[in-house]
Write a structure and sequence with these properties.
The structure is a homodimer of 186-residue chains. Chain A is mostly helical and 186 residues long. Among the domains of chain A are: 44 residues; 78 residues, Arc Repressor Mutant, subunit A (Orthogonal Bundle), CATH 1.10.10. A 3-stranded antiparallel beta sheet of chain A has the order 1-3-2. The first copy, chain A, is elongated and about 65 Å long. The structure holds a DNA duplex (30 and 30 nucleotides). Chains A, B: InterPro entries: HTH_MarR-typ (IPR000835), WH-like_DNA-bd_sf (IPR036388), WH_DNA-bd_sf (IPR036390). Chains A, B: Keywords: DNA-binding, Transcription, Transcription regulation. Chains A, B: Pfam families: MarR_2 (PF12802).
DNA sequence: GGGAAGTAGCTTACTCGTAAGCTACTTTTC
DNA sequence: GAAAAGTAGCTTACGAGTAAGCTACTTCCC
C-alpha cells in the first residue's frame, strides 16, 4: 500500500558518481527517487537528477507560497509580475504591453489577459501611445503603486524567511553564486 | 526602445545586504532586476530575490529543454513523469492511479488525462485491481518500458551536459548539498 | 511617394491543469 | 449486518497559458 518502495538506507556508494546523501544530511524525497533509479538503472548519473529535481521542487514550493502571499492582496503571481515590472522600471511606472510581455517571457495573448484583469481591478491604466498609434502605454495607478509596494515587501519577507531559516549568509551567497553560473549555461 | 533600463554597472555596494555580483562574475538578467529594485526600493533584500529568481529561471529553462528531449519520443514532460515513476518502482512496473497522482502531486483528474493519453499511445495498460474492485492497476507495456528507458537516458544526458558545462564535480556536489538544505526548509 | 515588409495589440481555438461533484465500492462502527 | 463514513477513479466546469491569425499602423526602400 506504500506509495513507493522506500529505500531504507541511501546506500553509501550506490551510483557511479560520488557523494550523494552526505553522512550527516537527512535524506529527502529526492534522495528516495535517486536511490530508486540507482537500484533499477545503476548506469544513470544521480547528481544532475538530484540537482534539477531539487530546483524544480523548490521552484514549485516557493511558487505556491508566493501565490498565497499575493492572494492576500487579491492578485495572482502572474499579475504581480506585471505590476512589479512596472514598479521597478521607476517613474512614471509606464511600459508598453510589448515590453512587458518580452520581459516576462509571455505571449502577447497572455499579456492581454493579465492587463485586462489588472485594469479592471483599477491597478493600472491603458492609454494610447502618443508617438505610435499602434501602441499602448500601460501605467500603474496610485492604487496599483501602493499595492505593489505592499505585496513585494510581503513576498520578499516570505522568501527571506525560508532562505535564512535554511542557510546562513555565507551559504546563501555561495548558493547564489553557483546558481548564477548554472543559469549562465542555459 | 529598450525593453528595460539596463543598469550599466552592477554598483559595487548597492544593497544593504552584501556581495551580489562578485567582482569576476558576469552580470545576468537577474542581476539587472535586483539592481533595478535596489535603485527604486533600496530597503529590499536582494539576496533572496536573486536566489529564487535564478531557481525559477533555471527550472523553466531546463523544463523547456526537457520538453524538447521528450518530444523526440512523442511524449510530454507530464507523460514522461508518469512512465518514469512506473519504471523506477521496479518490476512489475505497476502502480495504482492514486499512487501515481500522490507521487506526482497531481489531482486525480489530471492523472486520468495523462493515463488516457499514455494508454492510447500503447505505453501503458489499465487493468482492474484483483483485491479491490474500486481500484485499478496501471502497468507499463513492453513498448512503454523501452520508451522510458530511452527517454530517461536522453533527458539525463541533457541535464548532465548543462550541469557539467557550468560546474565542476565539487561545485555540483556543493550545489546539491545547499539545495537539499533549502528544500528541507520548504 | 507608394508598395512591401515589419510591428503592436487583440481574438480565437486549443491544451492541460485544478476543484468539485459523481458513482461505485470498501471499511468502520454500533 | 446495516448504516455511516471513507476511498478510488472519472466527469464536468473553469482558469490561464500558447500558437496562429487578424486589423491597424509604421518603417523601409526603391
Amino acid at each position: 500500500m506504500n506509495a513507493a518502495k522506500t529505500p531504507q538506507t541511501p546506500t553509501p556508494t550506490p551510483a557511479p558518481t560520488s557523494a550523494e546523501p552526505l553522512p550527516d544530511a537527512p535524506s529527502d524525497a529526492v534522495d528516495a527517487i535517486t536511490a530508486q533509479w540507482a537500484a533499477v538503472r545503476p548506469d544513470l548519473e544521480t547528481v544532475p537528477m538530484a540537482v534539477y529535481g531539487r530546483i524544480y521542487r523548490i521552484a514549485r514550493a516557493m511558487g505556491e507560497r508566493m501565490d498565497k502571499e499575493y492572494a492576500q492582496f487579491g492578485i495572482g503571481r502572474g499579475e504581480f509580475d506585471v505590476i512589479a515590472t512596472l514598479r521597478r522600471s521607476g517613474e512614471p511606472y509606464t511600459l508598453s504591453p510589448r515590453q512587458l510581455s518580452a520581459t516576462l517571457m509571455l505571449t502577447t495573448g497572455g499579456m492581454t489577459g493579465r492587463l485586462d484583469k489588472l485594469e479592471k481591478a483599477g491597478l493600472l491604466r491603458r492609454s494610447p501611445d502618443p508617438t505610435d498609434r499602434r501602441g499602448l502605454r500601460v501605467s500603474l495607478t496610485e492604487k496599483g503603486l501602493a499595492l505593489v509596494d505592499e505585496s513585494v515587501t510581503a513576498g520578499l519577507a516570505a522568501q527571506t524567511e525560508v532562505l535564512t531559516s535554511a542557510l546562513n549568509a555565507d551559504e546563501a551567497a555561495q548558493l547564489s553564486a553557483l546558481l548564477r553560473k548554472l543559469l549562465a549555461a542555459h
